[in-house]
Specification:
Elements: H1 11-29, H2 34-40, H3 46-55, H4 62-81, H5 85-91, H6 106-110, H7 115-129
Helix pairs in contact: 1-4, 4-5, 4-7
Domain Antitoxin Xre/MbcA/ParS-like toxin-binding: 77-130
GO molecular function: DNA binding
Domain Antitoxin Xre-like helix-turn-helix: 13-73
Length: 130
């Protein structure tokens, strides 16, 4: 059976618009390229991505909602760890000596395309918060 979009009356369907709006605001703060935005969202078709971006609404699947949830958690942790918002946003792009990153930036790790890498970065930041 082919996967279908969520019916409008499910709780997940109600999350689509707010999740996408939050993601696109986050992408602006982090100065993410379009290709990086698509990769972080799980590589939706280009037409779907631009529709979401234009309308700031839609019904992304559970995988995309999960990805956005991790990204928002990463953003929140960075805001807590760094008192200066610009410093928090810049951390994502800077090389990191922690073994988890192997000298690469957290963003590079997150752009692997695997939702597990978003989870790992979020766990790392949550551990840094204590």
């Amino acid at each position: 059976m082919l996967a279908q979009s969520l019916p409008e009356n499910t709780p997940d369907a109600d999350l689509g618009g707010p999740a996408l709006r939050a993601f696109f605001r986050l992408a602006e703060h982090w100065k993410l390229r379009i290709a990086d935005q698509r990769k972080l969202l799980g590589d939706p078709p280009e037409s779907t991505f631009y529709k979401w971006k234009r309308q700031q609404d839609g019904a992304p699947g559970r995988d995309t909602i999960e990805r956005i949830s991790y990204l928002l958690g990463i953003w929140k942790s960075l805001q807590i760890l760094f008192p200066e918002p610009a410093q928090a946003d810049a951390w994502l792009h800077k090389p990191n000596a922690a073994s988890l990153f192997g000298g690469h930036s957290a963003l590079e790790r997150m752009l692997s395309g695997n939702v597990a890498d978003l989870y790992v970065v979020r766990q790392y930041l949550d551990a840094q918060r204590g």
